[in-house]
């Protein structure tokens, strides 16, 4: 079976996961302006909206029509036209509220470093979701802002460090993130670069301009992350065409993980198609954790179980986290949560049914991966009692710490 | 379930796929001479016929005995001895006719570049299949023919281009193909080589002789393909022991795909075990398409669904094509078609049963991948009306455009 | 289904596999001292025992509690505390006897090269298992012993060769093994190094000390293995954090396999997550065989079928072997055997049920992979008649050839 069997929603693991409010440890805001068809379709895909090939004709498009349409009062599998018309009719705020509420997310850790001007703020996201938002600081954005402000090659390292320290000192920041995967990949010299190397590389970058993509500066960024002391999220695997997939196998980081053992937790985000490689690292390095975000909403519930099953083959149950990596569309917040709940629920329930796993163990694994692991790692407060009790009623009135 | 459940043939997606006449966008001819056991076994494997290890004792051997034997009037799972005896008794022409007819292929795009003297021509293949054949020009064969005819280093580039233009100008040619995967792998400098580089490399190759395997000339071949303007098929992944598998991950082509965006469609053939990497490229590059040919008959219906499921995790439904990559044995034309129909049928029907996909959507995906995508891409005519109606009767009288 | 359905134990393939005494062609001894919780947990994982993350909270920990607890007279899914208390109460000898007997292993090929002083000898292991033990000589340990004894750079090659010849001349030695994967990975120059290269590299190593990890000496070791003429086992893929996973893709060995074709059999051990790459090599190189040991007990019966299914997609059925790669804990001898039997049984029975495979063929594949392939490859004697008859009674009185 690719998806859970019908009637599965009455089974105990599915029930527990349905009632659990999730910690989404890596997501983004949603676009605050109204979207026309082209705007919506371009957000629906990691590719682009190509002539003659609708992004709706894809696994994620099918999942949106199946699982999101009913929340807009449409029948399952509604047509793209009907879907977009109804979406426009309801308006962005109402659409976002419906999906974010239905996602059942208690905590959102929001990466604010990619085109924040188009997106809702963490506070707005938390309000719509009826949860609490924290912030994840994207270090490349910090470095690029330092460069944009004007800095000399010689003062780049100090300037970046100061800006990063300031950024992570803001209220609500719980982690930093790097998109080294997009810039150089992971096939880097693992050693901390010297001051001279950084100054030389910074001089070249500042003269050249553009994104931070110099291998020395990317290494310097990763080592600066180590100094900051916060958990470090690393984009891994699947993304848009800027990725060179063969250079983002996370096991390319092995030497660097040896050098940084005992320092900060490293969270491998998304990972597909390298979920097994990420699982290996999580099994042998104390500091490594993983999720299969992004993939979850792209493949939908039809394949989330299969991918979670690979990710969990050898991963210690304390090492898997949930993220949606939703970006731009509130649909992705919902689909990520749904794919995680249904995929993990089916996987665990099946093992319970085969007596490979006891029900109490399955419920512990569900609770850990859906929230407890993230709460422990980021030092987040325990959920409010009504959430722990697995309340299925509407969440309490929206509030955000930010 | 690894294969479709019994009784599955009565379900709508399976029925539709069973009634659909396929477009096999990449295959080869069949051996026209009678084959003894050694000859048959050596074609049955991508390895060789080794002492003490019969190629029949493999997934493809089991699939032949299970699915091909009944078409030779033998019981399912007939012994290799009975199978070969009956095959010889019927004779090559009758055997080929039975398998090619049963494959239900409407269009065959035939790579004529590998040992064509042993194989049936596209016209013969089309006649036996009751379909229409088109030709795929293998560019390495064109280049090697130019070298064999005698050419100077300085005139190689022009001579190759002229010969390629002439080849693709022949009636019925719809695509070109490269086996760069076999020659250098994909870890190539993505840039178009300069004239001087090509002349120098051609001089060395012409002096040395042998197959075209120089990295500069392989790059030049790929860029010449871009100039020709036809869809470019690229062998990817699984093949014989000439492959260096770690050098044929298709994501090694990412830089080249960026440079050639907006030019020719690129069809990644076979792809296993890199079907997820190929799917990523198809999801983020407009010009990239894929199939899981070759694998289909090697793994048989027992695993085709699993591999198609990985290939389709994120692939836009307009981007997957069907090919058998059958070579030498008509059994492979049948097995490829059967594995595709059963694997895709099981995958889609299961999603329909789980209400993850609507039946009309499932039927559209089946129609697209089994033929419409290829027809659109290669500019092939629409199928005759009786085929569109899903006729299950014998195909009309054999005809070929070649 | 991730595991076999309940009631599956009454089906013929499962029954046959349950009654088959296995050949475990690669395993290790078990720790002979009593283990406290920390000692047990550190053996339970390829990582380490980390504060706050119990190795019991992992797929292998769950499998131990599910499948091993009942053999210690505890309920299924017993708590770690109860499990460890009962294990201590029974004592190491009784615990080992129970698990090794229950594993139903007829022949154990034991790698004696890693910390043998902590572990039971092959003879002790055979006695506890009620089977016969053979020895596998780890060549890196031989080389390091030569270096430790004192040798000059110039005499290293001869000294190593003499020591290796002596080691493989011992009674009961059936194979050699290399852990090149741990030392350099497989991205090596495939050519046999020259005498001068070896002398120079040996000089540097002897001066530097430490483990044998020089690329020239690792190549020399692999070529020495070829000269020895015995089957060569190669650790591949999953292991502890010394592995650089991206350098142990077995297809990196392709050039070396071409150069050594026609010499010794090469057994790719474990392979995960490269089981498909290993299968490709087994399909195209006569001398290549594979197993999915180590993985089997780490993933447990819940996922062994899925991994075996990938390993068997294209692997000739004469090319897959069984190993547990159990190390330290007798639990792993049991879990490896159980995961293999249940995973392979489910996979084959399902194909029989779908009529993709005949029952006699399924039983042959089961017999080949569970023992016959290894017996043929290592030249082991046929099993005693009662075993061939599939006796399910307790094995005969313990005996060992060593």
From TrEMBL, chains A, B, C:
SUPFAM superfamilies: Metallo-dependent hydrolases. Residues 74-380 form the Amidohydrolase-related domain. This is Amidohydrolase. The lineage of its organism: Bacteria, Bacillati, Actinomycetota, Actinomycetes, Kitasatosporales. Coiled coil: none annotated. Residues 380-402 are annotated as: Disordered. Pfam families: Amidohydro_2. Gene3D superfamilies: Metal-dependent hydrolases. It comes from Streptomyces griseorubiginosus.
